[in-house]
Amino acid sequence: MAEPRFTRFAAIDWSGAQGHRHKGIAVAVCETGGGAPMLVAPSGGGAWSREDVRDWLLDQDRPMLIGLDLSPAFPFVDEGGYFPGAPDSPSDARTLWKMVDDASATDPHLAVSSLLSDPEIRRHFRQHRDCGDLFPGGAGRMRVCEHGQRAMGLSPTSCFNLVGASQVGKSSLTGMRVLHRLAGRVPIWPFDPLPPAGPVIVEIYTTIAARAAGIRKGLSKMRDAAALDTALVNLGSAPHQPLARYDDHSTDAILTAAWLRANADRPELWRPAAMTSHIAQTEGWTFGVS
Does residue 2 have a pLDDT over 60? Predict the structure, then answer.
């Protein structure tokens, strides 16, 4: 199949925090051409909830490339399973999404507290004051594409680590609940093949966009208008419309939407050399890691 020709691009900075609405969620959208991405507000105004994002995704029907800043699955290849030794450890990502959603069905706002209190599952995670005996220590387990991120000079963290400012595990778990509810309704690459038309969701890592925009390691966050505009221009985008508030979430979403537009048609990003069909169905892949 030829690479899709998208006409719209969106980047979503995600949050796994407790609660209903989150300042940590930001959605930015741009069209083909050179116009700067714009932030999108939820239909009811205020801050986004995870349910708002789910509903917004379900409403999209244009040929849009949508980047979600979360890991859609846990490491599988390194140990032959997500939760080795656990009864009924899922065999692929879709089964994992269902397990996470089912185990957390009573948690409000697409949270995952119930799953993480399961006596067998918690053994695999590093949580605050509770490091499971099956968490390997150090950086923790990594997906194949995360090893690829390291080869690019990036610093991914294990999805099994739920401690610290850079942890991504809670975002990933809450994201899996959303992905389960989108399954069969919005294609999610690489678990689904690229659709001939309409939207498709990919995993993004906003630091890839920052590096491509010339922001050097250690300075990947943009907290003012000048820094954001400099990065956007480096990606072929016009300067942005001033924001009411500059924070990491908003600027990451804006810059990454522009990066998606600039890189959507690169064939090597859709056919990574190290991504086998088994990896595509179990671990997924970060768009931008070739």
Answer: no
DSSP 31-83: ESSSPPPEEE--TTSSSEEHHHHHHHHHH--SSEEEEEES-SS---TTTTSSS
Question: What's the rounded Cα separation, in Å, for the pair 186 and 92?
Answer: 18
- Contact criterion met (CB below 8 Å) for 249 and 224: no
Query: Containing domain of residue 247, as a range?
Result: 1-290
Query: Would the pTM of this model clear 0.85, i.e. be above it?
Result: yes
Beta bridge partners of 40: 27
How far apart, in whole angstroms, are the C-alpha atoms of residue 6 and residue 197?
Answer: 9
pLDDT, averaged across the chain:
94
pLDDT (average), residues 53-65? 97
In this predicted structure, the answer to whether residue 4 has a pLDDT above a threshold of 70 is no
Q: How far apart are CA 38 and CA 228, in angstroms?
A: 13
Structure token digits, residue 214: 């010339």
The continuous run of DSSP H or E covering 173 comes out as helix 169-182
Q: What total of structural domains would you count in the chain?
A: 1
C-beta of residue 22 within 8 angstroms of C-beta of residue 15: yes
Q: What is the C-alpha to C-alpha distance for residues 87 and 162, in angstroms, rounded to an integer? A: 22
pLDDT at residue number 38: 98
Q: How many angstroms separate the CA atoms of 290 and 273, rounded? A: 7
